[in-house]
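TASK: fixed-backbone design
INPUT:
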């Protein structure tokens, strides 16, 4: 019921806008007035899927300048096939968007892959950030063995008859049985139809899991929070993050998943926590 009320707040999608980011066309939308909030979606997603459809964008636009962008290789943004077009370029697109809009500092809301990009921004451009929310993922301080396997498997799958297999398996709610290959094919069919597999292969070769540093997180002069569900496989990383960086607030939502109908993005507690974060940023 709560998720439905959040989605009900959604209005029509603002008109598409584009800007040139070092030779790649990046799509963005904006709506509302007030402090700027830039939203970064997850892998294989888009601003429509992860922020418009669930009402998050409209809720934020009520009292903020809400801005959402399609990451390169995603949505309606450019999809280069050159690995050199990725890596830190994914993070620099955010800064170039701020420059394009003449915004000096913004709140960053990163979901899943977007959270990792937000973490990288803490390292390379902290002076442009008012606050950071990591949703459904944590800032990557190192690539662990699971990360490396996911990247290797994703690259191999881009040339197989079952792209996105590792992704579909990785986001299964904790405790659920693994789908069969036939079930996986049905699950990933919309992703194959909606995305450029060659662009994603280039993205993984060029680097997509961007790293931040412990030093940068400790030196941050702005508030940060991680919000994740108890059914998200990544929830096991919360405790190590708390121990290493107690200054980063954490919110673990009971029964919330990474994606789907029970996604952490669809929970009203997420919007409440974001507003508290932004209020804290203004009081500093």
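OUTPUT:
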């Amino acid at each position: 019921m709560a998720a439905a009320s959040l989605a009900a707040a959604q209005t029509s999608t603002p008109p598409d806008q584009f800007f040139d980011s070092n030779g790649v066309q990046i799509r963005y939308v904006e709506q509302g007035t007030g402090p700027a909030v830039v939203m970064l979606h997850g892998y294989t997603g888009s601003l429509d899927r992860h922020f418009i459809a669930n009402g998050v964008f409209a809720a934020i636009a009520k009292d903020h300048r809400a801005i959402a962008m399609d990451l390169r290789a995603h949505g309606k943004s450019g999809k280069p096939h050159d690995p050199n077009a990725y890596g830190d370029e994914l993070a620099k697109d955010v800064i170039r968007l701020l420059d394009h809009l003449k915004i000096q500092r913004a709140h960053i809301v990163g979901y899943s892959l977007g959270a990792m990009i937000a973490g990288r921004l803490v390292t390379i451009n902290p002076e442009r950030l008012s606050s950071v929310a990591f949703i459904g993922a944590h800032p990557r301080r190192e690539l662990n063995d699971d990360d490396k396997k996911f990247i290797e498997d994703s690259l191999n799958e881009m040339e197989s008859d079952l792209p996105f297999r590792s992704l579909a398996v990785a986001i299964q709610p904790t405790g659920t049985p693994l789908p069969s290959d036939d079930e996986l094919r049905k699950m990933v069919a919309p992703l194959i139809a909606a995305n450029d597999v060659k662009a994603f292969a280039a993205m993984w070769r060029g680097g997509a899991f961007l790293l931040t540093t412990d030093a940068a997180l400790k030196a941050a002069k702005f508030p940060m929070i991680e919000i994740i569900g108890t059914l998200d496989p990544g929830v096991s990383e919360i405790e190590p993050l708390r121990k290493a960086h107690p200054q980063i607030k954490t919110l673990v939502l009971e029964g919330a998943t990474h994606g789907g109908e029970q996604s952490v993005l669809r929970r009203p507690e997420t919007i409440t926590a974001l507003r508290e974060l932004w209020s804290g940023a203004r009081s500093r």
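COMMENT: Strands lie at 17-21, 24-31, 36-40, 65-69, 106-111, 129-135, 224-229, 249-253.
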